[in-house]
């Protein structure tokens, strides 16, 4: 290796160190650095000069080399901003919890993603590392996504590849769909309880939320019909399979009725199909999308749930002028999803590792879900389970009337357990105190220990 | 390799083939596949069974194996959608052009990104492939971005790491900032001509655009003052350094005046700092952000311009309650930027390859810009160059009065040349016919040939 390269290599290592240092902090002397890197003083000096040329350090002759700092700005005055900013649309408290994981020390009984050991890690590393070496990953794809990925995703539905718009995960798909299909100020109807990310998405899009109760068979269609009449809503948001938080699966009968209502009222149904691959006991019914030729249903697909929380990749599947509108408007928001992530999704979905992963996942989720149900029944029977979910990642549980879920979740947090406060799943006051448990992110041992600690809190 | 693994490997290869086939198409027979994959008939049959189990193919005994197709849906009726959809906010024609590259056969004289050979390819492949093997890349980072990346990006500005919000590229940063800081229906003031992506972003956010003329020193501050009075706008959008399309750099004097106006009127200035690293002749002035303690300036940073169009990574840098609002609202739109992309950005920005890349880029862009200027002056002197840009990727050129840029750009497209129609850079009628040239995406030979073909068109 030439001295030049060696100096640059040392500069690299020092750069990494400098970002963790404070402005004005002193670097070790040349002699110490020579010893550390086993390089000549000249090479170390060359490395320091390189850093100095980019303004990262400043040499003071006779004193040493210091991390550069910019001169401080005067004390800020932000008072004008309070006047300039209008009221916040998004509920910051709810937003702060979305996707939140707590610390590494917490038992994650409320995280809607898979634990690291449940990911197809080997394949992600292999496919990812291969994709990063492809030139295609570093240029752009068409705005709607790479043709290959759109073809693969279309095959998940009764869809044409042209109906598919690739996005950076389900949440982005959701808010973008709401924003594009509904006018600010108009109403979107959700089931109640509903996914907090959907509540936030509606807020972000400037929409008003109306909620309709759901039971074990999904949204109550009679009440939905009333609400459509009353609100003149143009958009319904549903999770027909393994709804978060209740785990409900919309019954075959009600699926038909929802599509009939959509046709009668001329509304869009956003089908949040997040748990498509997270079935445990038997397969879920076909997507609503597959039974709707006339473009009422817009489906949101995600890979971050079944594959990896870091694989920020999803799709909006939509037919007709609405699909065109979505694909055309998308450019204003983001030119395309990172082609590297698209390449990785293609590689994963066409690999034989994918069905193997899903099979293993099914078994693992069944075990963890059963452990959670048994633990609650054995250790904390005061927590009632209205219905055991047949898929998805969540268990919805009811506490004795009068319980304060805010206090209980805070106490759980202090005791090292993260559990979801049911309040966040309602747009208004909850009808009863609920907790949402997740069984995808914690090990069996953690689940049992988490329920034990929660029981201690409930008995206080 | 066990037979099981071998069968799965063959299934993988067939999967890749199947996505390119039509439903109902026949796969080669077992004997042919045995020969092709040099595997026993039993192994090939196992591979086909695997595909069949996942519904990808269907075996018809005695006839062969066929690609599965779903039964066709009835003829769709989308007429109801026209009633359900409100007027489009985003101008689809302008959106279709944003980031558009034409085909591989076109000479790209209008693409605002770097050509493949100008990217730091070796580093992207090396850093990307290493990052894909890290477990961190497959879980989530905090919503605002990884602490390390926020620290690195803060050091580009006089900012605190807490002021930084990592986003998926500049366009996403731009539209998200407009949407969060301005109420739908309110006015955002831009310079004229301005970046079409900003015009689309404003449309997407439901904002009204008011434009103020700019000259070689950037936006005209006297006119800006009038427009602030007239419109009561709360947001100004600017590209202070190497504005797209004109290449103008806002003068030091005017920078001060813009900040004074912002303070007097209590408005936000969105500083689109896209060309920060694309200086050619001398360094640009410090970012507006660095001279504004009170949080008027919100800067948008991007890596997709100086590093790679596929590196969809940028940042919003904002102080005070506005910064908090932006970071809190972000969760509703997207839980976090793909951690893999964040890891790659960290690796690239702290590598000694980064300053080396920027140095090489400066030289290459100078050569290509100079070639473009010389070619226009020598070959097509009827195209006037009001001012040679000292940085950025674009050259703004004026055609003889009466030229129809729509026709000229269409003829150029047919002749295999992509050039930007000046109309897209104005919100109203353009004051004169302009073309926008880009010199970052085409080789010197392509630039000369492109100008030659354009001259042929202009002389017709």
Outline the structure in words.
Two copies of one chain form a homodimer. An eight-stranded mixed sheet of chain A has the order 4-11-10-9-8-5-6-7, with helices on both faces. In chain A, α6 (121-132) crosses α13 (339-349). The longest helix of chain A has 27 residues, at 353-379. With 460 residues, chain A is of the alpha/beta class. The first copy, chain A, is built from 16 helices and 15 strands. Chain A is globular and about 85 Å long. The mean pLDDT of chain A is 92. The first copy, chain A, is 42% helix and 14% strand. The first copy, chain A, folds into three domains: 3-67, Arc Repressor Mutant, subunit A; 100-118 and 355-458, Aspartate Aminotransferase, domain 1 (Alpha-Beta Complex), CATH 3.90.1150; 121-349, 3-Layer(aba) Sandwich (Aspartate Aminotransferase, domain 2). The interface between A and B is large, with 113 and 112 residues.
Approximately how much beta-strand content do the residues of chain A carry?
Answer: 5-15%
CATH superfamily of the largest domain in chain A: Type I PLP-dependent aspartate aminotransferase-like (Major domain)
Count the beta strands of chain A: 15
Biggest sheet overview of chain A: 8 strands, mixed
Assembly state of the chains shown: homodimer
Largest interface: A-B, 113 and 112 residues
Radius of gyration of chain A: 26 Å
Any guess at the CATH architecture of the largest domain in chain A? 3-Layer(aba) Sandwich
Write down the overall geometry of chain A: globular
In the residues of chain A, how many domains can be counted? Answer: 3
Q: Distance N terminus to C terminus of chain A?
A: 67 Å
**Overall helicity of chain A:** 40-55%
CATH topology name of the largest domain in chain A: Aspartate Aminotransferase, domain 2
Q: What's the CATH C level of the largest domain in chain A?
A: Alpha Beta
Could you say which structural class the secondary elements and strand pairing of chain A correspond to?
alpha/beta
Low-confidence stretches of chain A: none
Q: How many helices of chain A does DSSP assign?
A: 16
Q: For the residues shown, what is the average pLDDT of chain A?
A: 92
**Strand line-up in the sheet with most strands of chain A:** 4-11-10-9-8-5-6-7
